[in-house]
Design brief:
single chain; 262 residues; alpha/beta; Rossmann fold; six-stranded mixed sheet; three-stranded antiparallel sheet; 8 helices; 9 strands; 23% strand
Length: 262
Amino acid sequence: MTALSPATPSDTLLRAQAITFRRQGLTILDAVDLALSREEIVTLIGPNGAGKSTLLKIALGLQKPDTGEVWRAPDIRIGYVPQKLNINPAMPLTVRRFITLSAAASTREVESVLAATGVSFLIDASVHTLSGGEWQRVLLSRALLHKPALLFLDEPAQGLDVSGQNAIYALIRRIRDTTGCGILLASHDLHLVMASSNRVLCLNHHVCCTGHPEEIRHDPAYQSLFGGINLQQLAFYQHHHDHEHPLCEHEHHHSPSRSAHP
């Protein structure tokens, strides 16, 4: 990590400069710059294999770049939701136990983070019985246990239908609004994630374009990458929700032992 330069705003949480990353002779990232401030959602978009997850892991500190520098605010608390997290199906594991695997926490703390993501009713459920939407909310709860000022989310709506995606992105915005944290989000979804972002970085091994979602939708580099997607269809999803979508019937399993919150 490098020292914060005088030109960097005081609310900056993360800055990456000239990040290059190569593997097996292939350039995954080429001179990529990135910055993130408090109360800001920055979304990395791009086709599969564009380097989104790699950049997120470098920003998080899980991988080292070949060249370039990463600065994170000193003593910053970080939360992370990975793209994939496999749990042995033979392991009997409740949501309560799963959340406390990475850090000791009281029952009150576990209940608090589950309430923040709308799944308090799942506290004693087996993680192996959760639907996709429930699992994503539990992963978010686990990340919130650390009270992060900086939250990294890698494909947080993967595997969900449009309604489930909408609910997750609304929840992410609410987390930003209530905690003031900065969020770096990697996603290949366009139609919903664009409306949830303060700033978008379009990545295809290098930065193709970056800016406010409305600006980059009309950028030639963006249209070159995603020209097969109808821009009017994207515009349909550009509304900003001021409410949380409830868990839909198809988003969780019904059972006599647990029911959705009101």
